[in-house]
Amino acid sequence: MSALFVLDGDVEPDDLRVDGVTLPVPPRHLMVWRRRQVWRFDFAVPRGMRDTEVAYGFPDGPRWTVVVPGRHSFPRMAILYGSGLTGGGEPNAESSSGIPPAPWADLLTRHSTDRYHLLVQAGGQIDGDAVTAASPQASALLTDASRRLGPALPGVAEDLMAAGFGRMLRIWSGAAAASALASIPSVMMWDGSDLGRSLAEAWGGREEGDAASRSLRPLMMATRRQVQLFQTGSVADGPPDCLWGSACGTLAQGFTMGEAGLLALDLWSDRNGRRILSERDWSVLPDWLDRFATCRHLILVSGAPLLTPAGAMLDRLGGILPLRLRSRAGDHWSAIGRHADRERMVRILGDFSRRSGCRITIVSHGLAGGAGARGVLRGGGLEMWQLYAPHFTFTEHPGGWLSRLTEPLATRPDQPLPAYRFEMPPFAEDGRRLLHGPGWISCSFDAKGQLHARWRLPGDGGRYAQAI
User: Model pTM?
Assistant: First the structure.
């Protein structure tokens, strides 16, 4: 594991003390940003046969506790999306971090009983719209398309980096958020929300090598540098072993946890108007999947959903929607022009699952402004579930036009590929298919490799569950 600390000024932190580790753990200096020093502590914790609680901290300072899975334990995790999103509004008066505190507090309460081994964050760890708004140069470049054709603005990347760095520290300094992040080891992957709508649309719609692409690259690299620092605890010249994509220039991460696997795909480093993944990415994906061949179950973190209700109908409708509304619907696997990528991904995943016997479940952000849901694709001897995580701290009003469009479509089975059928079954609790409100998904595995997913919605006592 590793623990990341940011200190003001030229002060080196004390060595870290970890239960079960004989020697003190020295700090490793990662980088300095405007008199803020970033340090990381790396340590390996011995595992027992069963779960153990391990404390770490400083001799004369704070200490924290994590649950280390035993050799005979089955993984338990919380999966969430949008922990840093505020909907573009003002900071919540009850939270110094600028996000509503209730979901973090509820997550901590659940952790006290469920004892999560892992916190999987599938995107939206920072509100990219708020970061862009706080960066005058980046905002000017993204709102004026003509500026992208000229020379790069001097200092624009540093301006955006400063805004993002400061906001990340404010978000993660909230008491409940800080406690959760210090108590549950995290795996995080960025998404379009981390970039902000303007940068995501511009980057996702660019043409390779054009002038606009060259002017956007400094913004993209600044955002990615910040993501790598805070969300993987590393810098470009020192990637951790879990960053499988570092050799090909992406932030894709992979982990094996006994007979369960976790693969988080980077869908933004190589995206442009013609593709989501580059040919280089596609070429290494089968090798990455083969690393999970001995697993019974693989969770694939996709960010945007790979499978959506009535995707073909939405695609036809998108062709006649105005550009403004089309962009609101999002640039994802089911968007116009992305179907070839989606079909290629489904076929690669299906071939691996049938060949290895490893079941694959896809986890993505929610539908229709952040609603939780579930869907299943069947065909060709394959059953693959798609889980939609509700937004953790913010959801749009369920009465919005996108929600009104998605609700009826969720009841209609779809045929995204020949001989495949996709449908979204209702929850037995109340017959709903879309779960509105902030929350997350808890996942655990049993001795048969079966995954048990539950949608946790603070304030909603429903038992929304799916065994896979």
Answer: 0.91
